[in-house]
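Data availability excerpt. The first of two example chains:
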Amino acid sequence: MSVYNAASDVANPGKGLRLCDIPVHDPFVVADAQSGFYYLYTSGGPQFNGMESWGVIAYKSRDLSEWEGPYVVFKIPEGIWAFPQHGVWAPEVHAYNGRYYLFATLHNHNRSLPEANAIPLKKHWRGTTIAVSDSLEGPFELLRTDAPVTPSSLMTLDGTLHVDEAGKPWMVYCHEWIQVVDGTVEAVPLSDDLSETIGEPVHLFRASEAAWDSAERTDGFDGAVYISDGCQLYRTKGDRLVMLWSSYEKGKYVQTIARSVSGKLEGPWEQLAPLVKEDSGHGMMFRTFEGDWMLILHRPFKMPDSRCKIYEMEETADSFEVIRPREDLHGA
């Protein structure tokens, strides 16, 4: 176990922390009007946070400028389908039916999946799990321990909750490029208690459909690969359904956005111009207590250098646009 810096130490939560001090990957913010706190969730583990195994940590702030934490809100239990030492990706928390649900991608490198292509990277169990708590500060307990919620034959990541216009819950997730070469975004219907899927996955789009996506190369594979990450869905004031997601352009992470032509989850989806480049991505949006839209993402991609960056956003009738970076909140 090791601790990267004072802002990372779960054994000694601090106050007055700035975002420029806190190593964060895949940030997710919940603005809780009842408590008056913004909660920032990210993964925590033995490498940087002094934890014995991987889990999810949270920071909280009243003004998005000064933060306190980190606090452990979830630890991967022993004896479940995922291995506690193999990491947590993309934790996010959603209020749903009076409780709080944590979505997080877990891994088991020891359980192999069939080889589906010539990419010389191991295909193994990876998928999004869901845990529940009555508090935004946890502890969160898994709804199931025998398998991820996403289909166990698929190597998936970054699952998020979407409730459609009929009130039906879905998990929208990314299908890993390692398994399919051209990474996709897909959706699967969930039971009302979010504990299981109740239908087959629906294909939404491929990463290669973004005209700007220059494709990537990986050692030992002759073809191009396309990466899909970090899907998040929002409905505009003009009732248009849009999705944040991330991929790469010339080796650098990109925060982009897509829009459903039909206004429904099933699409078809059209790819819009990227929102932020500069090795930035895996963003999500939230409203401040004053009602303003903010985009939070990480930059650069590599930990422990990765930090949260916040952008003020403008909501139009059919999309969202970046107004300006908030360096007063995240630093230069």
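And the second chain:
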Amino acid sequence: MRAFVPFAYSALFAAEWLAALADEGPRAEALDRARPVVEDAVARVDAAGAAALVRIDGLVSGAMLGAIPALLAAETVGLPEAAAAAERAIHELMSRVAYKRRELMPLFPPLIERVAAVHAAAIQACGAARWRLMAARARMQPGRPSSPMQGAGTRYVKSDRFDARAVDCLPAIDRTRADRILKRLGEVPVPDELELRPFDDGDDLWTIKAGGANRFILRVACDRRGPFYMVEDIGPRAG
């Protein structure tokens, strides 16, 4: 069973937090009444963002490998759309309230900035968590060779889990481009433009470029002829 991102995209901002701004009151008191409402909304946004980061980090510490597709969806679609919706909601409120009371206008830019920053931090955290979980999956759920060995110099082969993982992460056009790039891994020497490098401080996982922001995750394996790269995964590189 797949896991899902443990917070609603809309949880980082709610227009209801600003509902009190629509209340009628003496114009002379408008600014004093509005300021604590906006300040409270900023505090709620910050608290919601901090809670989201804790929950995202919990997916990694809990090795929730099933959350990888959900994190990618949050990172690329759900959270960007939520950020745009939140900004629209604030601007709509400004058009309804602040145009009558222009003295309220300076209250909104800091809120808009915080909403954007909190969503951006959540997007970055989802990407980092997804990338770390992809590495954990390559180590915890390694595949077996899916075909004969490839490469005239550096040997490599796709794992029998690779195709399903690639379908989860990339559209067909990106997978086709990545396959063309992967063939260059077998050249002697490995082309510098592939940026072959260790995944982290270990020596068991490596990565190479796969086109655009995407990278392959390669696991070092061995057979009777010696070491080779098992191509385990592919996806957008976080950060």
